[in-house]
# Entry
Amino acid sequence: MKKKMPPCIIVLQILAVFFLPGAWAQSGSSSSSSSSRLGVVVEAKNITLPAGSKAVLPCHSTRMIWTHDRLKDRQRVVHWDLFRSTPEYSVERIVDMSPGARLRVYNSFNKGRVSIPDSAFSDGNFSLVINNVISTDKGVYTCNLHHHYCQIQQSIQIQLNVTKSARKEKRYWDGERTVFVVLLGSSVVLPCVNRRPLWREGLLEDQQQVAHWDFQPPGVRPDRADRLVDLYGSGERRDYGPLFSQKMSVLEDAFTLGDFSLQISDLKPVDKGLYSCHLHHHYCGLHERRIFRLSVGPPLPLNPTEESGVFQNNIEPIAFLPSGTEEVLQHRESPHVLNVFLPEHQGHFVQYLGYILATFLLLIFIVVIIIVLTRRRKKRELEYELARAVRGSVTTGGEIALDYSEPKSCNQDPMNSDYKNNLLKEKDMAKDCNKDFDGKMWN
# Structure
């Protein structure tokens, strides 16, 4: 008989269908879209400065430094290594190659016998060609790709075995790497292909480096933020609106120094808001974001004959400020790292509601499972005790009743008056009693 599902389980399933997928989908889509569009947040600070001062919002990255290499000889390198396990463990460099240099073969015996295509850094084909395979070529070959400028390394391993039988030639996967079984004296191509633009020529790296600053006033959504400036590795620069041109600036040689800090002079209350520095290196796959929440406080009281001080994000006042003011500034204006920011998605409330609801439903589900399991266990124990009692009563009532009859007393009257004495009479009576008893036992 099919059991009916408890109503609480049905209600939980209905709630999960209506609420959980929406919350999870919204959370996943919003996080993935925001991360891909804005980049990964690597730094966040909260800065408070007095009105009239100068702010410097730091944004540094050594990976964004543009160093033009006219020869292009050391940014990308490919090399093949051979690892042998017999007769002893050893690693040997076979060949290496870079865009600005020729193929270098390390063993003179392999010159003219092993090679890499000359167009490797044009079409992404870094395969190793071995002619006239010999028995000592057996081992594990590793193709290593290094990009020193982007600090990226990739590698692939291939096992090469040598056989003397043409029927044993094959190629297969052993669970860790591709295995080539090659006939002795033949030629083989060990594949190593990577067609990502990172490893190929014809791409201008300076055109794929972009840095820009955005300003988000209080109460404005992230997608409505104002663009302040765009910087390109090629030297192109685009300023947006009078706000940046009048009081803001970024170093002209930002890509040379890796310093994209934003300087804001003559701070005013209208400058309060969220500033974000976006660094994109499409060539290397770098996408970073730094966020600064700037608050503008009341101006500091200064003497009429003295100039206003300059403050950076470390909030170090000029020496001419009053001694009491200096201590207050160091206490009030020190930067603090923000651990929590205002959510950047309009449906953040639904996300948090989904998380809370999912946790609550999970706890209810666990409690229901515990109750059901406890009831089942008690029911099984009750059934077991009942069955045990029934078996005990059946065994007691079904015992085999043995035939019981009281032994008849033997006639002790004298059957034969001719007995000579009492001993003979007792012996004869005992014999009659044994006969009667033996007869009943056999019956």
Summary: The radius of gyration is 46 Å. The chain has three domains: 40-67+204-341, 76-199, 349-387.
